[in-house]
Amino acid sequence: MADVCVAQPRRADQDDRVTRNSAYLMAATVGTAGLSFLFWVAAAHLFSPAQVGQAASLTNAISLIAYLSLCGLNSTLVRFPAAPDGRHAQISRAMVVVFAVGCLLGTGYLLGLPYYGARLLTVRDDPVRASLIVLFCALATVNLLTDALFVSERIPQYNTLVDGVLQGLTKLGLPFLLTGLGTFGLVTATGGGYALAVLASLWFLRRRTGFRFRLTAGDTRLREQLGFSTATYVSSLLNLAPLLVLPMIVLQRLGAAAAAYYFVAFQIANLANALSFAISESMFAEVSADQSRFGPVLRHSARLIALVQLPAAVLLAAGSGLLLQPFGGAYADRAQGLLEVLALGAVAVALNTWASFAIKLAGRMAALIGSNVVYVLVTVGLAAGWPGRGLVWFGWAWFLGNLASGLVALVALVRVRPAVGRGGTGPSAPPSAPQNVLVVNAYVRENAGDAALLAVCLRQVRTAFPGSRVSIAGMEDRALRPSFDGAPNLGSIRRYVADGAIGTPRRILRKAVGFPLGLLCLLLPRTAARLLLPLLPAEVRREAAAVAEADLVVSMGGGYFSAGPGPDGYQNLFYVALPLLLTQRLRVPLVLAPQSFGPFAAPAQRRLAGYVVRHASMALAREDLSVDILAGCGVRGAPVRRSVDSGFAFAPRTKADWHARLGVAPGVPLVAVTARQWLAPREQEVYERALASTIDALRADGSAAVLVPQVTSGYLGDDDRIVEHRIAGYCAAPPLRVNEQVDLGELKGLYAQCSFVLGTRFHSVIFALTSLVPCIAIEYEHKTRGIMRDLGLEPWVLPITEVSAQRLSSLVERMRTERQDYLRTLTDRLPAYVARAEELTELLRTVAGGGADGPP
After folding, report:
1. In sequence order, what are the beta bridge partners of 405?
2. Do 306 and 275 touch, CB atoms closer than 8 A?
3. pLDDT digits (tens, 9 = 90+) for 687-711
């Protein structure tokens, strides 16, 4: 198709275009339906009710087979048109596919007539008539595809000309010439209309768009959008099933005459149903052409449907008797009640049609299929159970099926992220740099390791998206810590329920109340969930609002995505996962920054973790064991990627002379020791006494050992200074200690000036390794061994449960004799490892661009 450069239209112009294009499509549909109405009026006078009923079943089947044969390609050509160099081939290949499928399904329909249409076998047994039926199916399919092309090119006036005039007039005139063919005369008239429509459409496409039939050249995007086409096709199969099954039930259970009454009433009702379909189709084309208009176009089309559909339904119900009179007295007597119910059903059809097109635009293909499953089950189920009550109950089955399906689709639509409703880019918008980025599950700056991860994360987000607004929802009290590195701190749901400044009973109460409220926010329809927000505390509302307004959410790295046994493990995992689940429900892209996953003590915990990770845009695991744990949670491959702890990218500039600051003479080897509370009291004491003995031994050998608190947070008693105070008491003489809270960069500078580090807190090990300082690592979680293994340093890892003075002494002695080998291994592996720690910047851009993929 030709490239055309146009100025960006104003909103009013775009709304006018939706209205104008809808008017053309409605005119096409009304013209087609009006001429079809006259066609069946003529048929009712020229043919017997039995012949009309049989012809109606056949022509209805041809029409439905045509829709079935589209394979979703009609929507794909509108939603995802190929670039100009591949558009001709895209259209040509689609035509070949749908023509072939139309022939195939038409043949299958005829072969299956003994099972569902025994009264039509005379048509199948005539080879010429059977061949024509198959051809008519294929031509009807191509005609529908060309209709979609006119919509895609935003020239729907040709739908009016081709379908509303040429096809309808041809079909109307032929029955007078074919009365001698009986039932097949009506079928041939319908097929002749399709044939002329296809020829006219191809001619107009060539004249208006320059279309040339070619099967090669350019990227057609058909293979790329196979998933969309397949999902659309499946939903079409489900959507059309009642249209095919209900006439068959009427024919088989109530007879051919009743089938004629049903068909005529249904065709008249389609005059009203076609209005909402035309508007929704125009909406689909308009949003596909300009995806930033998702919200405004949906709202405008909904208003337009309400404006035309409700009066049409009322007029149809009021005039049902009058509209049936031209068909004869029997039709007016037998079909009026049915037509009145179908007129009421037009409102339900409008809801179902609009909501289905909307969720298809939003990319909610599973919801689209689900709503159509409901439609089939309700409509066919009720129709099959009610034939004994009379023809009118088939109308009620139709009404209730569409209403149920429309409500399901509407619920799915209101769960689409708020940016859609605001007229934002919507789920299928072209990739653009996020303007609002929210970092969730951040911890506190008193934990130096987590503070380093947050600092690196903020830097990488800002590098990936310059000018974006970055906010933090973490564990710091907003009143005391309003920001971190220039990013505003919002507080969080997790901090609110675990606030260390309140008493234990209040914390337990907050967690107990927060759990059901969190579940309600996740499970209720969004409109209902909004009613809960005013009842929630301000801090909880802030994080929920920030998630809703975010274009990207990044969950902080660290070791918190795990769960131990018992209620405490469940509540920890739930409150870590809650903002992530809210993010996913609102369809905001979610990245789990490099972190450890697991362990998880219970199957339910693994299922929850697996669900969260599986639905993330990307999940970065910082060691192989985490990848294995996620595989045990049912997540293998995408979106999980093997990554590196972001602490390796933390490189502040420091100048402090720690020898002087600690009062240690220049040239005296400095050894930093970090410790933490982790074990049961007896085992903890064994661990602490072993560290004290090692400190005494280091001092006896002429080194200066200093106890360094990596974490100084009082929350849950996790202040390393408490442990180090006890260790100092076990020492023969008071050791050197850093008692004050030290700036993050200064702390890393301390490790950089050490001879080696004996570290339990693993980020103290990382801080030292990135300064090319050897470390002995005491392992309390699997992250320690996993990362040291990556660096070829696993022999220098000692499990915390196996710590003893003897084993520590052995490792210290080895450090003295094998130091150079250690440094050679480190310098060989570290540069590539640090480079990988910087990959998050590009990975974030990949996710924002819609290109998140599986592991490299």
Report:
1. none
2. no
3. 999 999 999 999 999 999 999 999 8
